[in-house]
Backbone:
């Protein structure tokens, strides 16, 4: 008798800070229908063989058209669904202006006073106190 540990796939979301470090980017999902209209940290699934920072930098290029550098992982994680774990990592914007190229229909830079002004996906809320401390 043996047990197989199910593989957990990571979704990485970016707490992307602007050059001043005083604003973080929130993105409003346009799909799928169940998530549309809710706000999240832009990102996506880590591909097999890819590191989490590399996935985060790739996703920000694809989704927002920007060059960003991954920083550190924020404490905690959330199970989006069985086998899928959401981690939030910091990222700094190196080049480009973010545009909602894929998966999102609105972007918003938030500061410490407006961080809670959007309708965050519940799964993302664990990261908000950590992000707030950094703004
Ligand atoms: N990117 C992102 N996804 C999140 C967050 N919070 C959250 O629950 N999710 C969920 C939504 C999706 O079910 C899943 C990520 O899927 P995704 O569609 O963004 O991933 P992906 O770009 O790699 O897309 P695909 O390979 O499935 O086409 O995680 C978040 O802050 N950022």
Residues:
């Amino acid at each position: 008798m043996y047990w197989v540990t199910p593989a957990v796939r990571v979704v990485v979301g970016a707490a992307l800070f602007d050059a001043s470090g005083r604003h973080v980017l929130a993105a409003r999902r346009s799909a799928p229908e169940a998530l549309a209209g809710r706000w999240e940290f832009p990102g996506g699934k880590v591909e097999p063989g890819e590191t989490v920072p590399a996935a985060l930098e790739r996703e920000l290029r694809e989704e927002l058209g920007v060059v960003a550098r991954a920083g550190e992982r924020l404490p905690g994680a959330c199970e989006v669904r069985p086998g899928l774990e959401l981690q939030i990592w910091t990222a700094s914007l190196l080049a480009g202006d973010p545009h909602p190229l894929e998966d999102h229909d609105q972007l918003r830079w938030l500061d410490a006073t407006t961080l809670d002004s959007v309708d965050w996906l519940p799964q993302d809320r664990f990261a908000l106190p950590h992000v707030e401390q950094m703004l």
